[in-house]
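Dear H.,

Thanks for agreeing to be a second pair of eyes. The structure we're designing against is below in token form, covering all 364 positions.
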């Protein structure tokens, strides 16, 4: 292959999502400048482990006498894929929607899912031909044939390594055929992505060693493990650390009420010992907010449908705290009354205190 010069960049990110990591999020982004015109594409897609598209947004754009952009959004409705097409140019914007039934399009592979499929085929070293449906940026369906060649030793960009090859032929309804040849490592790393009908080719970063089996592979050590050994980085860390400590110390010195507020909360927490600390904390500090919000905390536990207020209000010998928003029993109230800040933070109704006093005298 003759020498090429870079005209842009291409980035692919795949990560597992979902409660059991059985779904995938694919993010593909590219940008390039051709003949003085800047353009690019973006794909954000989510899919299942069975290569079913859950949702995808794909955008292609170019700046040529203004912005020209095409977007296709694919989502799932009851029994079909809902497709929304948007076209934007300098003086016009149009939108079109259509539905694709699951029955007739069960083998639809979106562009985001295509990335997952190619990586999977490389990992299992599949040999043969597979046929699926694909959808273009204009919403047109086409037939996609994946011709898979098992890994073989070859020279690629000056490296001798095992290369898995996939040639994808996209056959449109008007008879047009587009061919794309992709080279991957046995570990599903894309080495080269070649659109055979256009003079552009996607190649792996030349600074990266593609031979993942080599013991001398060039790898960047994660900063999380070695940053403290870097003198410059460690110095910046210490500067920032002491700067933040000074800021917090100065703030607490100027606002002693914050320290008192935290002390009150800790004291209350140790005395009340609520079953659900998160609910307790929310209710405690919500009383000090200018505009208290309604917090929905019932989802913190799957079978937890009672609030902390009801937990602390089971006994009749309770009194309501206007600051914390909780009912406190007589024993707890005695502990609170021994602290120096009780008189400032809690005001009880007179009839409630009389009731507690009479009842406690009967118990003695």
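And this is the sequence the design step returned. I haven't edited it by hand at all.
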């Amino acid at each position: 292959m003759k020498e090429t010069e870079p005209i842009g960049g291409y980035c692919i990110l795949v990560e597992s999502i979902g409660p059991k990591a059985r779904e995938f999020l694919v993010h593909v982004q590219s940008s390039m400048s051709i003949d003085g015109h800047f353009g690019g594409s973006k794909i954000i897609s989510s899919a299942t482990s069975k290569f079913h598209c859950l949702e995808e947004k794909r955008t292609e754009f170019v700046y040529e006498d203004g912005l020209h952009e095409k977007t296709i959004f694919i989502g799932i409705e009851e029994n079909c894929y809902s497709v929304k097409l948007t076209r934007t140019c300098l003086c016009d914007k149009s939108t079109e929607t259509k539905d694709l039934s699951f029955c007739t399009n069960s083998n639809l592979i979106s562009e985001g899912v295509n990335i997952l499929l190619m990586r999977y085929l490389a990992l299992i070293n599949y040999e043969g031909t597979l046929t699926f449906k694909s959808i273009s940026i204009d919403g047109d369906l086409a037939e996609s044939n994946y011709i898979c060649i098992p890994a073989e030793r070859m020279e690629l960009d000056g490296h001798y390594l095992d290369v898995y090859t996939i040639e994808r032929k996209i056959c449109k309804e008007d008879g047009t055929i587009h061919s794309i040849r992709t080279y991957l490592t046995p570990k599903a790393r894309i080495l080269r992505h070649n659109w055979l009908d256009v003079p552009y080719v996607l190649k792996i970063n030349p600074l990266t060693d593609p031979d993942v089996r080599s013991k001398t592979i060039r790898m960047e050590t994660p900063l999380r493990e070695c940053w403290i050994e870097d003198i410059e980085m460690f110095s910046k860390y210490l500067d920032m650390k002491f700067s933040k400590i000074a800021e917090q110390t100065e703030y607490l010195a100027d606002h002693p009420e914050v320290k008192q507020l935290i002390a009150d909360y800790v004291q209350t927490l140790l005395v009340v010992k609520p079953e659900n600390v998160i609910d307790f904390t929310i209710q405690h500090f919500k009383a000090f907010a200018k505009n208290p919000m309604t917090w929905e905390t019932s989802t913190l536990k799957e079978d937890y449908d009672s609030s902390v207020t009801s937990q602390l209000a089971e006994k009749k010998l309770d009194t309501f705290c206007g600051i914390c928003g909780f009912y406190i029993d007589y024993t707890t109230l005695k502990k609170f009354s021994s602290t120096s800040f009780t008189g400032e933070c809690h005001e009880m109704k007179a009839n409630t205190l009389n009731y507690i006093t009479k009842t406690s005298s009967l118990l003695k």
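Two observations from my side: The chain is about 25% helix and 35% strand. The two ends are 98 Å apart (CA to CA).

Warmly,
E.
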